Amino acid sequence: MLPLQIAFPPLSPELFSIEVGSFVFALRWYALAYIAGFIIGWRLIVAAMRRPALWPGGVAPMAPERVEVLLTWIVLGVILGGRLGFVLFYQPAYYMANPEQILRVWEGGMAFHGGLLGAAAAGWLFAWREGVAPSVIADSMAMVIAVGLFLGRIANFINAELWGRPTTVAWGVVFPGPGGTCPPDWAHEICARHPTQLYQAALEGLLLGLVVWWLTRRYNALARPWLVTGAFFVTYALARIVVEIWREPDPQFLARHPQGHVVSLGDFGLTMGQVLSLPLLAVGLALVFMAARRPAS
Fold first, then answer.
1. Which of 2, 172, 194, 195 has the fewest CB atoms within 10 Å, counting from its CB?
2. Residues of the domain holding 61
3. For residue 12, is it within any domain?
4. What is the pLDDT of residues 162-189, one digit of tens each?
């Protein structure tokens, strides 16, 4: 191992497992992160609905009891959208050749941008059925989503997946399995990598959560429709674009280009994560500009 670099701690992806005959039930940290993120987000939105002063006109836009119904819609949207996003954005050829694998969500393979689109579709349908302004659903979800992102990225680290590019920095982590395998052009015997899961937990989770909390507490941002949503889009997109510099692209993209770029810009390029984040950044800036021009109600 290179000096000062860190061996991956003895962590198991499974919190516990129960085996009864040929049946095995295992609770994985990744599943627990989803469950905890949804529950914490649900309770935070309920708390916000019980504080009418946070909302336009000093009136809570939805009864706290309806948030549980919203949660059901969002859970379905995130799971379906996240899975289909992974299939279409990252491995379309494989899943078109093996369509029976698409439903095997328990084996992993979720895309944030797909989950976001699925949640947006589910939220819009809920708003239409309930007669609630779409901005309320969007701002409510944007207010709490950093919790799930933080927990999910920690679970990615525990699973030793979605690691970063090879590095010699002192905090590089030697991941088990394929993550510890050096690329052919790597000069060192042991391959330490950027722990980009933790970078993302810090930026997409902690930093994003602090930005949203600051806006809602300091500037009463929920009283300006779409402001929290726009701030979320901008902060997430910038965080993802930056972290992609050190994150290892998926193997199918590395096979096309040594740096895993899907868009070439001379000697540089953009990864799939950066390409998908650019429209998010543009929409977020437009929403922030639009919301900031309106006086808080």
1. 2
2. 28-293
3. no
4. 999 999 899 999 999 888 888 777 777 7
